[in-house]
Amino acid sequence: MTTGLPEGGASGGPTVLRMLLGAHLRRLREAQGVTREDAGWEIRSSESKISRMELGRVGFKERDVADLLTLYGVDDAEERNRLLALARDANNPGWWHRFGDVLPNWFQSYLGLEAAAALIRTYEVQFVPGLLQTREYARSVVLLGHGRAKGDEIDRRVELRLQRQQILTRAEDPARLWVVVDEAALRRPIGGHDVMRGQIEALMEINANLPNVRLQVIPFNVGGHAAAGGAYTILRFPDEDLPDVVYIEQLTSALYLDKRDDVDLYAEAMERLCVEARPPTDTAKVLEEIRKDLDE
Asked: H helices of the chain, where?
């Protein structure tokens, strides 16, 4: 029997490994007709702990995984060793761990999802999306929320944001990014006109040279639109076992939605946004118009 799971670590680090292992444990449990309550009893825990494990929202103890595999009838030594190795890998910290001093816990899960996503669709109202920000623009945004922080902390927050952008240019399977941004975000002079001009020029270069990035602008004359509730992101993964996730960031926390009905509603709103926005073929012209206005 094959697990269908990766041999080693995934690009998304522990977050996605936990999700993959959790999904596999759920399939094994359901195949044997074992309830979450009985599984929880087997590992000296609760039904809710099993639920969190299967959703990939907690770390895995090797002993717990081994006991569950025995309960689920997995007696093939090779398969057991592979799953236990995956449990160990899932507990390793992601690359962002070294930024833990400036990284809230609720955002760490998103970084793992973002790094593993095959397709990221995002709608932004206030700012240029973080994956497309220049260093100067990113610093200006960070200062808005952390103006009293020391210089080295600001530097680390900016560096974290820039390192995230590597998913778009990595040699193997770069992520696809589809951005719908409100015109107001492109005209709001975050950091001043020089910083904003540099940001617009960077977007023009990205739009022209990165085929995996699609950028659309919602002009002022659209008025109200499908996503009037605010910014959000939808992440889709290459592994069919992982559901799409909607990420909605708040001031001191975030929402992660993966129920099919919720995801479908946000996906439908995103589709309507793409229709209401200027087509991607107009993006270069829109950016050029904005840059000219900044020069005046």
From this structure: 14-32, 36-42, 47-54, 62-71, 77-90, 105-116, 135-145, 151-164, 183-187, 193-209, 260-276, 283-295
